[in-house]
Design goal:
Glucose Oxidase, domain 1, 13 helices, Aminopeptidase, alpha/beta, 2 domains, 508 residues
Length: 508
């Protein structure tokens, strides 16, 4: 019997080699079954919504890094590893001891945690009082912000589709605080963080290396009476304005900030980066990047807006962005097993901190492990597993010739039944809301693939069972053919000059 077992064991390597030889290779390796298997790992209840930072996020990062190692990708993180880490700070916040008080021509007092919410950033020490500035307009319509107009002041800014773009211009100028205001329904308002005391997380690298100021949120019903008393029409905060960007002081108005919080821990969070080296000696030093974010909003205690629904208190994030993370893993396997190796190198990257403010991708683009000038395109995937089964929105397609390329590649593969369309939700400002935006600001042509928002967005119902795994698999195969086309092309993608001026030059 022992001799028989020994003989069988000797056959194991040969059997494994035969299985590898017959396993699907290249884009054929991207299957619905594989998507389902991976999404049930990444978005399982045991991962508790993988907030940044958390033990569960680290487990997902370790899983992704293990897959990159199995596929023999070259590590492109810190110190020869697959992991690039960036610093975070954990603070204790007590809203019951915190207030905002307005004085001058009109007076008001707002309770932090009820009337206004501290949603992000670091509140100033002490109880400073500062003048108030109203920022309006659309950054893509021109105009500029003067440092003297906003530095050290409380800036009132409307929620709207250009919010991230305006914030990118505003934060480096050093405002004391930002007060976001909008006509928000109760259902959305209740999802905002900052309602309860507890732990808050801050990224010390945010805002170009400077501490990001306190960002408060409130509703027009709360702020409107004070604005009117200060001589400002609430209509001036219209979020769809196409006027040039402008800062206007609110005459005879100041706001005092009194927020109680203290630093309790310094931590780090991971990005995971692997590279498949290209085959062409002259092109392998250029890169096509596939990116997605592996974090989500966790549970109600994580302060990111997750709300319990019945007995379920875990926001799994299967679509947001488990679907994108799985797509990157599927693409890594397809490229690593393909018979044809691309001429350019391909970077596969899953980042963290997206839900807290695009933190991981911002850190990567500020501290790149490959030269950004050598990145020919970033293909970002965020939420690709819901809505119409044959439609995929391609955000940013109008800003470079990548739009024509994806149309051509999709037309060449009708069997995938994926029809690329433009931005179906322009009012949502999706161009500014995922990790591709940090690449675009640094001059990298981008495409952002998404199937869009849905009723389960940021809810406990965004679970693996609701995901259209077949759509994710078909999309990933399209992304494979697109990436291979870009990696083998003799020429790099080109920006449209006006888009480059607005997006790249305007954010430097």
């Amino acid at each position: 019997m022992r001799a028989r077992i020994t003989a069988l064991l000797l056959l194991v390597p040969a059997v494994a080699a035969a299985q590898r030889a017959t396993a699907p290779r290249g884009p054929a390796s991207i299957t619905t079954a594989d998507v389902l298997r991976r999404i049930n790992i990444i978005a399982a209840d045991s991962m508790r919504g993988r907030p940044t930072p958390s033990r569960e996020l680290e487990e997902v990062a370790a899983y992704v890094g293990g897959e990159f190692q199995r596929l023999k990708l070259r590590p492109a993180g810190d110190s020869g590893s697959y992991f690039q880490r960036y610093p975070l700070e954990v603070w204790r916040f007590e809203p019951d001891s915190s207030t905002l008080r307005a004085s001058g021509r009109a007076t008001a007092s707002w309770r932090v945690g009820q009337d206004v919410l501290l949603v992000q950033g670091e509140a100033p020490e002490g109880q400073p009082t500062a003048p108030v500035v109203l920022v309006t307009g659309n950054p893509l319509a021109g105009g500029a912000l003067d440092s003297a107009a906003v530095a050290g002041k409380v800036v009132i800014l409307s929620f709207g589709p250009q919010l991230n773009a305006i914030a990118g211009k505003l934060l480096p100028l050093g405002p004391l605080a930002i007060l976001l205001v909008g006509d928000l329904p109760d259902s959305l308002w209740m999802q905002f963080p900052g309602r309860e005391g507890g732990i808050r997380v801050r990224n010390p690298n945010e805002g170009g290396g400077a501490n990001i100021p306190a960002v408060f949120a409130t509703r027009i019903g709360t702020l409107g009476p004070w604005l009117a008393g200060a001589g400002v029409s609430p209509d001036s905060l219209a979020p769809w304005s196409q006027a040039p960007l402008k800062a206007r002081p609110v005459t005879d108005a100041t706001i005092q900030i009194n927020v109680w919080q203290r630093l309790v821990q310094r931590a780090t969070a991971p990005n995971v980066v692997g590279i498949l080296d290209g085959s062409d000696p002259s092109l392998r030093s250029e890169y096509v990047v596939y990116s997605a974010h592996m974090d989500h909003i966790g549970t109600p205690g994580d302060g990111l807006g997750c709300a319990a629904q019945g007995a379920d208190s875990i926001c799994n994030g299967a679509d947001d962005d488990g679907s994108g993370t799985v797509a990157v893993l599927e693409l890594a396997e397809a490229f690593a097993t393909a018979a044809e190796r691309p001429k350019r190198s391909v970077v596969f990257m899953t980042v963290s901190g997206e839900e807290r403010g695009l933190w991981g991708s911002a850190y990567f683009t500020d501290h790149p492990t490959v030269p950004l000038a050598s990145v020919v395109a970033d293909l970002n995937t965020d939420m690709v597993g819901r809505n119409a089964p044959d439609t995929m929105a391609v955000i940013g397609r109008e800003h470079s010739d990548l739009g024509r390329t994806v149309d051509r590649v999709a037309a060449a593969h009708p069997e995938l039944r994926i029809h690329p369309v433009g931005d179906l939700w322009p009012q949502e400002g999706l161009f500014f809301r995922s990790d591709h935006f940090n690449f675009a600001k640094h001059g990298v042509p981008i495409l952002f693939f998404t199937s869009g928002l849905h009723p389960d967005y940021h809810r406990v119902t965004d679970a693996p069972a609701a995901l259209d795994a077949d759509k994710v698999a078909r999309y990933a195969r399209l992304a494979y053919f697109l990436g291979m086309d870009l990696a083998n092309s003799a020429v790099r993608p080109k920006w449209n000059p006006e888009s480059y001026r607005q997006i790249v030059t305007g954010n430097r």
